[in-house]
Amino acid sequence: MTQRTVLVTGGNRGIGFAIAAHFVSLGHRVAVTSRSGEGGPEGALTVQADVTDSASVDAAFTAVEQELGAVEVLIANAGITKDNLLLRMSEDDFQQVIDTNLTGVFRVLKRSSKGMLKARFGRVVFISSVVGLFGSPGQINYSSAKAGLVGMARSLTRELGSRGITANVIAPGFIETEMTAVLPEDTKKEYLSQIPAARYGSVDEIAKTAAWLASDDAGYIAGAVIPVDGGLGMGH
Ligand code: NDP
């Protein structure tokens, strides 16, 4: 397997941390961004970046390029929720989620594309969500952003696919992390009752899918949405 320079946004905890740790275990050169500049897994370089700030994203990429070389694999994972029913959702809560989960991905994608174009190689993986295509009450902001990532990956594929760059989307279902730990027990039970696999997913199951999409074996997979959801979103 070819060793790559990998950058994972939001790699200080949850799914991003597990993805970064898995890439380290496979022998890749791994960098993670975190808002504090700390907290990535052992063996990874942690750099500070807030994906809502282009200058901070640019500085993080420059630091990674100096230490590890140009980013060949981008895992755009950083994300937030600000759930509320439509009538109670403020425009600010809508905008903040779009700015982090959609425009934030555009910022890191644009910055990483420079090196990928030069190398005529790149693997881009967006961490979307089952709710991007399935929908979810109380998550109009979040599901809009996550659905937007599908369009972004597919447009990128049409724009840069001929330059050795692939872009794919992982759509996780309900994964046990801090993001889902804060949900009310009733909501968690409701989700569980709808999951054909009858269990929540683990961060490792997302990490292994991300590593596979970045591997040599997945070179002809482009513009795909890969569900890792125990069947929750089947048909979407
Ligand atoms: P966590 O809340 O555990 O972690 C979120 C990560 O994103 C943290 O590292 C956080 O950094 C980072 N982050 C948030 N805002 C910013 C920002 N402005 N700039 C840089 N980094 C930021 O979430 P999960 O691990 O559960 O989720 C990871 C991704 O997976 C998200 O995109 C989420 O939407 C998606 N997902 C999660 C599912 C789940 O069930 N858990 C299901 C489907 C998708 P910090 O520590 O600084 O806050």
UniProtKB/TrEMBL annotation:
GO molecular function terms attached to this record: oxidoreductase activity
Alphabetically ordered keywords of this record: Oxidoreductase
Keyword Phosphoprotein (UniProt): no
Pfam families reported in the protein's UniProt record: adh_short_C2
Domain Ketoreductase: 4-178
PANTHER family per the UniProt record, alphabetical: 3-OXOACYL-(ACYL-CARRIER-PROTEIN) REDUCTASE (PTHR42879), 3-OXOACYL-[ACYL-CARRIER-PROTEIN] REDUCTASE FABG (PTHR42879:SF2)
Similarity comment: Belongs to the short-chain dehydrogenases/reductases (SDR) family.
NCBIfam families according to UniProt: PRK12826.1-2
Protein's recorded name: Beta-ketoacyl-ACP reductase
Organism field: Pseudoclavibacter terrae
